Amino acid sequence: MIVKKEIMAGDILLELEDVHMYFGKVAALAGVSLKIRKGEIHSVIGPNGAGKTVMMNCINGLYKPQQGIVLYKGDRINHLKPHERARMGMARTFQKVEVFGGMTVMDNIRLGRHNHYRSGIFSGAVYIGKAKREELEHRQFIEEEIIDLLEIEHIRDKPVGMLPYGLQKRVELGRALALEPELLILDEPLAGLNLEEVEDMARFIIDVNEEPRWQVTCLLVEHDMGVVMDLSDRVFVLNFGNMIMDGTPDDVQQNPEVIKAYLGEEDLYATRK
Hints:
There is one protein chain. This protein is of the alpha/beta class. It is built from 10 helices and 10 strands. The protein has 2 domains: 155 residues, P-loop containing nucleotide triphosphate hydrolases (Rossmann fold); 79 residues, no CATH class. It has a 6-stranded mixed β-sheet with strand order 6-7-8-3-9-10, sandwiched between helices. Helix 5 crosses helix 6 and helix 8 packs across helix 10. The longest helix has 22 residues. The protein starts with 11 loop residues before the first strand and ends with a helix.
């Protein structure tokens, strides 16, 4: 059993106001509103096709909602592209692992540092002075903070495409952490993992959320209800693009609409064991 922390309500980091997203005549999101406070692990659950990934895409800029407002740190960001939102401190992992299979673990993670490089074209091209110092600093950060955290020292120089799926998931998480995000969007990080890998990934999420070095706010989309209820400070429930409720894990588990639409009696029992 994962012991969840107690947190005080912080400032709102991310807010959705009446967000609508249509594909033709299909409403993937129908007036969704959500507030995520700094320091939270805020999970999003719902059946397949509920609109969870669409909502994540609207948050990180892959989609632009036809109606509604996305606010980050109090600023409207509807017009910003994904890389611009990344510069503001927003990082993401995906349902299906998005890594560069022919590159090493270290090089994949280094790609996540691109927003932090400040050296000019000339010094970067000849690798002298500021560029060299900057490269060494970034490498030290990756080695001491990310590789140690994710326990992947033994595979740091291996091509990612040759690694088991569970380790590829760690590499993708490491690349997101290399951005040093304030908001980390995790789209089904446990999908396809065995029980041991699920426990490891859940521990990594807790660490990046709670450790003073990181203290990253997490937005988690996940189907594993046991992990969701153990990790989350709040749970947002979607069903066919509509919000059913947003509340504490205990409140969600006791809501008849949530049980009917998604949890079901068997899953509800499993989360309470």
